[in-house]
């Protein structure tokens, strides 16, 4: 126990003296903000987690953060930007299993397992920090709030994976693409990464195909269909969704699986209708 406390203390000593809700570059810390809103963490627990931050750095787009099958002692937290988890088959085919957004831990599994079952790659320039797995486990043993927050994050990841499997196995390509748009809007709204009702989505068409398990040609055809039916309007690299209700009905989208109510309802209004923040009469804009 003394050794665990010493490890935690040494990490605190190396931490930067900045606000626990911002990184040293003054980027709002979506990870700590998310845990405060959804898991109800108080300032003391947030300070502990912030004190564990190591190796804050900017990472270029399309850089592999974690290689599939490698051992790691650190967890990677996405403070800003987009990344993805993916699995490679023996013949090089790729399936993107999750899009990682600001506030996400890229490799929560590393808290308990040493070898990564997936790879992680940035999709745009990102800000990333790392957390030492031993120090984080020690912190969770000393704080029930931190332990609950990590458990909640794991539960949400499981629910999202189940929804992703349902999309891949049973939803049509059109439903799946519409569902992806709906999910991204809600997730980015919660962490404050929408601008004027829209957001930047840095995926290539090939990457979108790897998310949806389709070909690039099929993705283009489905997108054209959504545009023809008035559910999506394209303006250069921006996508406007003129009828949110119609789009989510097309997708069969319900936000329940994102568990925005947080632990025991602590998330409050975030668990209701976060998409309404854009205003009921305004179009919703996506950047692609």
UniProtKB/TrEMBL annotation:
Family annotation (SUPFAM superfamilies): cAMP-binding domain-like, Winged helix' DNA-binding domain
CDD domains from the UniProt entry: CAP_ED
Entry-linked Pfam families: cNMP_binding (PF00027), HTH_Crp_2 (PF13545)
Residue span of region Disordered: 1-25
Keyword terms: DNA-binding, Kinase, Transcription, Transcription regulation, Transferase
Signal peptide (from-to): none
GO terms under biological process: regulation of DNA-templated transcription
Domain HTH crp-type: 171-245
GO molecular function: DNA binding; kinase activity
Xref: InterPro entries: cNMP-bd_dom, cNMP-bd_dom_sf, HTH_CRP, RmlC-like_jellyroll, WH-like_DNA-bd_sf, WH_DNA-bd_sf
Full protein name: cAMP-binding domain of CRP or a regulatory subunit of cAMP-dependent protein kinases
């Amino acid at each position: 126990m003394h050794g665990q406390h010493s490890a935690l203390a040494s990490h605190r000593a190396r931490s930067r003296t900045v606000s626990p809700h911002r990184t040293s570059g003054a980027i709002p810390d979506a990870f700590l903000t998310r845990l405060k809103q959804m898991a109800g963490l108080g300032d003391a627990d947030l300070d502990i987690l912030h004190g564990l931050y190591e190796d804050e750095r900017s990472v270029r787009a399309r850089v592999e953060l974690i290689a599939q099958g490698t051992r790691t002692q650190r967890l990677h937290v996405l403070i800003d930007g987009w990344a993805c988890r993916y699995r490679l088959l023996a013949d090089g085919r790729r399936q993107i299993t999750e899009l990682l957004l600001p506030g996400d831990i890229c490799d929560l599994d590393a808290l308990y397992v040493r070898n990564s079952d997936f790879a992680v790659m940035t999709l745009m320039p990102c800000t990333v920090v790392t957390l030492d797995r031993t120090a984080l486990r020690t912190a969770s043993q000393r704080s029930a709030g931190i332990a609950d927050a990590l458990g909640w994050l794991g539960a949400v990841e499981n629910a999202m994976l189940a929804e992703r499997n349902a999309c891949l196995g049973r939803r049509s390509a059109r439903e799946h693409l519409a569902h992806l748009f709906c999910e991204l809007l809600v997730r980015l709204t919660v962490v404050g990464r929408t601008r004027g009702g829209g957001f930047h989505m840095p995926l290539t068409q090939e990457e979108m195909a790897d998310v949806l398990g389709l070909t690039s040609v099929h993705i283009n055809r489905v997108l054209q269909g959504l545009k023809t039916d008035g559910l999506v309007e394209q303006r250069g690299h921006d996508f406007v969704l003129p009828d949110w209700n119609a789009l989510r009905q097309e997708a069969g989208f319900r936000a329940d699986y994102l568990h925005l109510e947080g632990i025991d309802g602590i998330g409050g209004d975030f668990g209701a209708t976060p998409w309404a923040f854009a205003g009921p009469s305004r179009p919703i804009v996506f950047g692609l």
